[in-house]
Amino acid sequence: MKISLIVRLLAFVLACTCLTVATAQLSGMPATPADNMPGMTVRPAPAPAVGGSFATPRLALPKPMAAPNSQANRLPDEPVLIDRIVAIVNAEAITDRDLRQKIDAISRRLTTQGIAMPPQQELQRQVLERMVGDAAQQQAARDLGIRIDEVTIDRAVARVAQESQLSVAQFRSRLEADGVSFQSFRQDIAGELTISRFKEREIDSRVQVSESEVDVYIAEQKTAAVEFNIAQILVAIGEDAPADKVAKARQQAQAIVSTGRTGTDFARIVSNLNATGEPVQGGITGMRTVDRLPALFVEAVMPLKPGEVADEVRSPAGFHILKLIERRGGGWSNATSGPVRQTRVRHILIRVNELNTEAEVIRRLTEIAERMRGGTVDFADMARQYSVDGSAGQGGDLGLVYQGDTVPEFELAMDALEIGQISEPVRSPFGYHLIQVSERSTDEASPDRVRSATRNLLRTRKSNERFQEWATEVRDRAYVEYRLDEN
Fold it and tell me: Do 419 and 377 reside in the same domain of the chain?
């Protein structure tokens, strides 16, 4: 029995010795190869108290190994945070690093465009909510079998690099210099392509517009009440004012018309005139039907297109300078009853992106325009070299376009140009353009053309509405857990 007790005591002492050695190794001695994972170390939690449970291992950055016999100088064994989860969308995590990268990119864009930044907390909330929605949409698209292969992503990245006049290697270096991971950028491109392909396959291809829908829309447009939104500047001069003062006021009004037709904002014109001691009044009517506007206003703006400025109009109050901001109603009445204008136009398009800032795009296009005006380069050559539009191969030529074929910003700038004139950089939803008009003519708007344009308009409207419905439904179905405020 004594021998048995002695054996048990020896076994207990041996076990304690082994435990001490193991603890020393975990606390500061060199790790075994299994522990020495590149880039990170998993540190086991301390032994639990009696009755407790084992803690979950924590992820930590590797720390410099302590020199032999320097245990007293070693830093406390605390884990270093690598990243944290700020939201979970179904089974996919959005990390704090992802969120910060998005916020930084948006902040740079807003700063470049001179747009005031929202409060940081609000910006963070909006960006995270957008990321949640995008993640839910991409997951739903993948669940339907939509996949984007690496070759397609490579081509898309190459196109973006080309738009910035860079090779892919140079583009990658620029991204990383701006703190954007190239892999993260590729993932963003893949996500955009996934949603685009889903929209084409599942929504656009299934949208149908019936002939009766076309008939109803055209009939509604013919009978719709016309509304105008008008900006005006008033040069006040009484009805009984001396002839010389009336002549001077008319001259000032005509000068304002000329300035307004250059595209200068009416509010800026009013501010500049008031600052120089030439008081004038200005304002915007808001959307009003013709029965709520002075007859002389309606008569002056009726032939105008949005953005155009009418000749000065005399009233008992003085001279009015009127600019049509927006027109609603009566959309097809003119198109079906009279000639429409055709314009042969060409353009150079450069898009704003993470590397091509707005200021850089404007600077580059301004420089190109100056060279073309100086006769040192040809428009078509510059379009082939710099434009990212599909028309670049044709020297930027869009052919003959009708009223309404292009976005309003482009059409407004195009209509203001003389034949052969080159515009200043023009902003549109697609980017910035240089525009040149080479020919103008008129043509009767055939019924077939009106119906075709109406059908395309209704198809686009239906497609956008159904996509928004789908996006809302996907977001509502998704399991979302926010963890932004947990840490």
Answer: yes
